[in-house]
Protein: Histidinol dehydrogenase
Amino acid sequence: MIKLINANEVGIEAELEKVLNRSSLDEPEKLNVVQEILDNIQINGDEAVLEYTAKFDEAKLNAEEQLVSQAEIEEAYLEVDDEFLSALETAIENIKDFHQRQMRESWMNVDDDGVVLGQVFRPLEKVGLYVPGGTAAYPSSVLMNGVPAKVAEVEEVVMVSPPSELGKMNPYTLVAADKVGVDKIYKVGGAQAIAALSFGTEVIPKVDKIVGPGNIYVTLAKKLAYGYVDIDMLAGPSEVLVLADETAIPRHVAADLLSQAEHDPMASAILVTDSKELATDVQEELEKQLKELSREEIAAQAIEDYGAIILTDSLDQSIEVTNRFAAEHLEVAVEKPFEVLGKIKNAGAIFLGHYSAEPLGDYIAGPNHVLPTGGSARFYSPLNIDDFVKKSSIISYSKAGLEKVKDKAIKLAEVEGLDAHANSVRVRFED
Structure:
């Protein structure tokens, strides 16, 4: 049963805080395991990678078999249906269109003194995509990470994903990667995949940045690898918050809460509302709909442990609670959602209106579904084109331009006690 919390009840603050701040990566035992994996692969390369693949995925491969062949890709197409291909193509088109709108152009500004200032945008040279796998299929993860990388014109996009016990990759994942235009695909997952991309092996290339979701070991590996490579973010369990008033439809709200709860036993599903009637009706709907799910056990545990209905006195108080949570996915199921939008400060993706179901963002709408979790939407953004480009500043001064500011530059350098800095400017006028 989902817990019901009255936000105005005396002494409830501790319970509310527990619900709103649940995520943590402070797991020293797992961190030590991951550090050992990274150290081993940094020293022993493919030999260590293959050992971990055999241990964790029960797949026995040789070094060359890690790279997916063209024959394997062609075989994958025979295992998927036309309906899937059609859905995939629509999703790719929408994701591409959305991310193309984020592209920025290099610029320069020249003033009357001949001073040129600007910024140059260049794509990263090599990016690694991590896609969960094994027996599961996550083609949407391929699209959300691969399409923006290709739109940004990253020179080489490589993908890693764990193989099945038979040493094969999921056909839906393979077809998605081929459709996106991924350059190379490797059968390796877990922390060992992150290590291989971070340090490089004889077979798997070192990349400049790693993007994509994974389990706690993958996330901790990305945390430890940061500095050797860049990463997108440290993603925790999935979460959805539904901000609703009396106009929300209980059946819809319950279905949306469960759509996240079925992801993971640690997924968070929260309803914040000022309608007691809606809160009661959603509780009943959750019980009904849970029984119909193939992943009932997972969803039920998530609802029990990390779900909550938070009852407030007003829509304004509901918005305040919503901003404190800073949800990965936020649904605004109120009578006038666009009037509420201006008051929303913290959220990864915002779904406005009663028919904007959260799974649309996961699959088909176009905005990226790689989103900040655990409250990090207070300061972090969804995966976007900027994650796949680097920016260089352009600075060019004429003698006249430098002469106008030389004394101020020298003064600031002298205040900091950096005589050579000051002299670097001064010598240009000693003639």
About this structure: The mean pLDDT is 94. Residues 196 and 217 are 14 Å apart (CA to CA).
